[in-house]
C-alpha cells in the first residue's frame, strides 16, 4: 500500500501568520486539488511515522489534519566587538570567507585551503586595526565554522557596522594568474571572470543540492532601493581607496576593481567589499598569502585604507 503523501506549500508565509495554535498547521483535507508542482516555492519533505505527530479527527462532521512544524532556526550569535569602548567610533566587520565543511579553493602547490588563509588574514587585519585605536572590529567567524552567506552580511547589519570586508583567495586553471582584486556589488558583472567568481562564491550555501541560505527573490530587488545605491557608491569608493593604499604592500591585478552580484555583498545599508587577496593556484601568490610577512603586509594595506576612508567621512560632515 502506498503511503499517504501530504504536501503543504508555504510561500513567503511568516510563522506568525499561520492559523491555529502555535507551531502547528490545521488543514481540512476534504477539498482535494490537483495541480502542477511549482519549483519556485519551497517544499519541506519528510516521512510521517505512523501515529507520531499526526492527528486526524472528525469534530462536528469535519475532518482535520494537524502537522507539527519545527521551531525556526535561531539567528547566529553575534560576535564580540573589540576595540575602544566608544560606540561613536566606526565599526568594521571582517568576514573570513568559507569555513567548516567548505574549504574554499585549495592550492595545487601546497594544499593550502582558502578557509585557513582567510581566517589567518582576518585575524591579522583585526590586530592591525585594533592597534590603530581608531576603529572597533568584529569578525564574523573567529574559528573554523561554516556560515551561510546571508548570516555573514546579516551579522554586519545587526551590529550596524560601518564597513564590511569579506576576505577571500581566488583560484584559476591558468596558474600564471596572480594578484589581488576587489569586488563590489553590481546587478551586472563587469566581465566574465567576475561573473564566474560570483557564481562560485554564491554556491557556498549549496550542499548536496540544498540551498542552506534560501535567500528569496526580494534580495535582488533590494538593489533598486535608494539606500542600497548610496551604499554601493561608498563601497566602490572604498574599493578604489583600498587598491591605492595597499599597492605598496600587495600586488594587484591590472584591472583590480571589478563588479558582480555577490550575495555576501548585498547588505542594503552597509558598504561592503570582497577582497580577493591573491590566487592559491599561483605558486608565488600562495606562498605570500600563507607567510606571516605577507599577511602583515595585507593587514597594513587594509588598515591604511580604512583610516583614510573614515577620515574622509569625518571631513565631509
UniProtKB/TrEMBL annotation:
Record keyword Lipoprotein present:
no
UniProt xrefs under CDD domains: MurNAc-LAA
Which transformation does this protein catalyse, written as a reaction?
Answer: Hydrolyzes the link between N-acetylmuramoyl residues and L-amino acid residues in certain cell-wall glycopeptides
Q: Any signal peptide, and if so, which residues? A: 1-17
InterPro entries from the UniProt entry? MurNAc-LAA_cat (IPR002508), N-acetylmuramoyl_amidase_3 (IPR050695)
Membrane-crossing residue ranges in chain numbering = none
One Gene Ontology cellular component annotation?
outer membrane-bounded periplasmic space
Q: Which UniProt keywords apply?
A: Hydrolase, Signal
E.C. number(s) listed in UniProt: 3.5.1.28
Q: One GO biological process from the UniProt record?
A: peptidoglycan catabolic process
Q: What name does UniProt use for this protein?
A: N-acetylmuramoyl-L-alanine amidase
**Origin organism lineage:** Bacteria, Pseudomonadati, Pseudomonadota, Alphaproteobacteria, Sphingomonadales
Amino acid at each position: 500500500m502506498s503511503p499517504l503523501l501530504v504536501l503543504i506549500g508555504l510561500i513567503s508565509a511568516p510563522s506568525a501568520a499561520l492559523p491555529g495554535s502555535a507551531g502547528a498547521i490545521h488543514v481540512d483535507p476534504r477539498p482535494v486539488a490537483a495541480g502542477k508542482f511549482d519549483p519556485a516555492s519551497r517544499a519541506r519533505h519528510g516521512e510521517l511515522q505512523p501515529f507520531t505527530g499526526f492527528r486526524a479527527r472528525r469534530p462536528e462532521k469535519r475532518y482535520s489534519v494537524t502537522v507539527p512544524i519545527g521551531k525556526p532556526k535561531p539567528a547566529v550569535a553575534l560576535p564580540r566587538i573589540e576595540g575602544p569602548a566608544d560606540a561613536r567610533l566606526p565599526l568594521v566587520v571582517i568576514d573570513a570567507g568559507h569555513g567548516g565543511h567548505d574549504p574554499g579553493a585549495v592550492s595545487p602547490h601546497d594544499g593550502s585551503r582558502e578557509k585557513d588563509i582567510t581566517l589567518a588574514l582576518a585575524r591579522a587585519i583585526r590586530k592591525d586595526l585594533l592597534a590603530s585605536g581608531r576603529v572597533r572590529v568584529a569578525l564574523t567567524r573567529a574559528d573554523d565554522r561554516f556560515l551561510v552567506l546571508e548570516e555573514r552580511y546579516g551579522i554586519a547589519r545587526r551590529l550596524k557596522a560601518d564597513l564590511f570586508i569579506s576576505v577571500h583567495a581566488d583560484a584559476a586553471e591558468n596558474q600564471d594568474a596572480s594578484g589581488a582584486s576587489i569586488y563590489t556589488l553590481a546587478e551586472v558583472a563587469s566581465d566574465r571572470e567576475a561573473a564566474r567568481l560570483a557564481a562560485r562564491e554564491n554556491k557556498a550555501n549549496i550542499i548536496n543540492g540544498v540551498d542552506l541560505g534560501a535567500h528569496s527573490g526580494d534580495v535582488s530587488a533590494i538593489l533598486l532601493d535608494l539606500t542600497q545605491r548610496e551604499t554601493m557608491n561608498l563601497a566602490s569608493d572604498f574599493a578604489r581607496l583600498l587598491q591605492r593604499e595597499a599597492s605598496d604592500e600587495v600586488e594587484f591585478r591590472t584591472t583590480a576593481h571589478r563588479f558582480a552580484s555577490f550575495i555576501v555583498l548585498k547588505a542594503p545599508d552597509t558598504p561592503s567589499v570582497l577582497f580577493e587577496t591573491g590566487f592559491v593556484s599561483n605558486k608565488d601568490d600562495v606562498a605570500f598569502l600563507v607567510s606571516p610577512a605577507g599577511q602583515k603586509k595585507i593587514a597594513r594595506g587594509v588598515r591604511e585604507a580604512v583610516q583614510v576612508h573614515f577620515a574622509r567621512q569625518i571631513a565631509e560632515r
